[in-house]
Every structure is written in structure tokens, then in C-alpha cells.
Design a protein that fits this description.
Layout lengths: L6 H6 L6 E5 L3 H9 L4 E4 L3 H4 L11 H12 L6 E5 L9 H13 L5 E3 L7 H9 L4 E6 L5 H4 L9 H17 L3 E5 L3 H10 L4 E4 L7 E4 L1 H4 L17 H18 L12
Parallel strand pairs: 1-2, 1-8, 2-3, 3-4, 4-5, 5-6, 6-7, 7-8
Helix pairs in contact: 5-6, 8-9
Bound molecules: 3-methyl-2-oxobutanoic acid (KIV).
Length: about 270
Amino acid sequence: MKKTVSVMDILGKKGKERIVMITSYDSTMTKIVDDADIDIILVGDSAGMVMAGLDTTLGITMDQMVYHTACVTRTRPRALVVGDMPFLSYQTGVSDAVANAGRFLKEGGAQAVKLEGGLRVIEQVKAIAKADIPVMGHLGLTPQSVHAFGGYKVQGRGDEAAKMLMDNALALEDAGVFSIVFECVPDAVAKEITDALSVPTIGIGAGPHCDGQVLVIQDLLGMSKEFKPKFVKRYAMLFDTIKEALDKYASEVREGAFPDDEHCFKE
Ligand code: KIV
């Protein structure tokens, strides 16, 4: 029997072992992810972009996020599954936040949720944690705020912005989060905050000093030819591998080489 990863296991890794987190949104990919030694699967609201083809993460709904979360948890992964709360599922108030966070556990089968923001959503974080729903924070470049930020820009540059990030991180820790994602912040700032917190930090574009790292799986696997932000490392170029296989399939079908005898039923 495989031992599943719990929130306690993640907390226990701080200062001892690095945490590996990756996104997944469907059962086929989750089976592969879980065969690798991954600690946390994030069903990210990036699903709106990489699965649904939206321009930003803003359009994905609670129902769609619960659907993707259930697709992931149905495979019963060993990794801890975190459901990402979509835009306006928690910003609108404490009772919306608790009810929607609860849906990720009740209907989606997740073990935890993630939401974006610090002090401005602190009452929501407290209420979710008080309902015994483990909650992960997300600071720095929070993509649901793309229009407020005026684009996807590095956050926390300069003393004042770095102090604001630190204050938000400490407030999230006090409110009961079990970890915090830092997206697109200078590595020195991420280090200072990581050292100051007792909960693990998980970086994406936040340098090597965080307690763990996360990437969107399509980025890591090179499934898009165009999209390649500075912080992404491609560990494969599946766009080319998949296209090569499809080109071969198409030409074999057109030439009559597939299906051959090996792939036919006989009387
Ligand atoms: O939605 C997402 O995939 C995320 C990660 C990039 C952290 O929030």
C-alpha cells in the first residue's frame, strides 16, 4: 500500500527535505505524475489557460475546478492534492470562501486548497483553516490580479515592496496556512522570507532558496512551442515528440501502412 503524503508530512519537510510540487488537471497525466516521486499535485487555476485555452486564469469557474480536481483524485494519487480556488470564489467574503473551499474536499476529493493574496484575504484564510480545511497561500505575482498589476510583472522589488511581501507572509502564517507559494519574486527576497517563516515556501520564479518548487506541467514538458517564461526549465520537448508521432500516424494512414496485419482481428 502506498503511503499518501499529508499536510503534516509537508510541514515536517521544512529545513530538512525539499518539496516537489507540480500541476495536473486530468487522470492520465496524474497517473504519470504519481509514478514519479512528487510530493504535491496542484490542480491549478492555470487549467483555465492550459486546458481551456483562456488568455488568463480569471475565467475558470468553481464547477470546472471541482471537475478537474475530481479527475485528479479519482486516480488515488500518493501525492497531496491541493485544489486552487478560482477568481471570485473567495474574494467575495468569508462564507463564500469556506463553502467553496469545502467543495474542493467534498466534491473534488482534494486534501487542501490554495488561494491568492495575503492581508486582504486574511479573514477568509482564517475561516477556511478554522473549518479544518488545510490552506496554502500564494504571494508575489498572483495571476488573478493581472489587471491590477498591469501585466505579469516581478513583485517584491525594492525595500518597501519586499517588506510588504514579508508582512503578508507573516500574516498568512499567523492565519494558519501550511505553506506559501511565492511567484516571480527576487531570489534574495524569497530567501529572507523563507528564513523568517516556520511553514514551507514553494517557489515558481522565486529562486533556489525556497523550501520547494512548483511548475506548470505543460511548461516543464515543453508542450507549447511559444510559451517559455524565464523561470521555466523544459525537461522535455513533448510538442516535438507528439507532433512527430502524429505526422507518422497521418502518413501511415494515408499510405495504407496502418493498420497492418499485427493490428487486425482475424476470424
Ligand atoms: O494555477 C497554477 O498553476 C498556480 C501555480 C503556477 C503556482 O497557481
